[in-house]
Amino acid sequence: MKQTIVVAGLDVQVYTTDAFKTSTKPILAVFVLHGRLGSTEVDYVQNVITSVLKAAGEHQGEKDLMIVAFDHRNHGTRLRSEVANQSFEQNANHAIDMYAIQAGTSEDVSFLIDFLESILFPANEREVVEWGVTGISLGGHSTWMVGAADPRVTLVVPIIGCPDYLGLIQPRATALGVAIGPPHFPDSLMKVLKAKALTALPYNSKAPENPFLGKKVLVLSGGSDPLVPWSTSQAFVEGLEVGPHGSKEVKVVEGVGHEVVPPMVDALVAFILAKL
Is the sign of the CA dihedral 236, 220, 112, 242 positive or negative? Predict the structure, then answer.
């Protein structure tokens, strides 16, 4: 079942199982974020949503599943500039635009967590007791960001995404002969990136300031991904500490490029069902 709502001008799709309407169970809400140049309607996003919902509908658990999807900034129904979504060859501001889009989408997730329950359940009919985010490619980058930034997000599943923006974008620029400096990488941008970089956080520490402590993390990547190589994420992921109350699973599918393949979807489905 699909319902489209508008939250402060943002079109949001809410997907639930057939049994959801008459159920009173607490809710696990999971955002599904699409990739660059895509939208909520692209096949790989709809396949993920359909696969997870089908499995949830056949699963008898303590919680109901609600899936939430919306278009990234400057994508789909929010598109304002096609050039701004292109890479360095067509867009001199690529390093700025791509980071701003994924950071803005991360903020959109937190914004929706603030207000979705009020709009969907104004008479307190249901309660969302857990929030999760999964995203693909650009959506995977945003997933890492919101997983670190929002303590309400406890399930974090980046798919072919990267937690290290500079580690990802700088080699791309260098390969194209783009200098790591103004105007492609202004000092003002570098200041923001370094201040917000997940690699600057104590992700390999058990200290209380570690934002991933207690969270359940599943990382899905392609072993032969030329666009978002596993090597750009590996050090961060291997050093990531989630503490005794969290969990971390990593699945790198060998021989797979920048794509979402059935083993990744199966792993995501199993991960979510275990939380219901």
Answer: negative
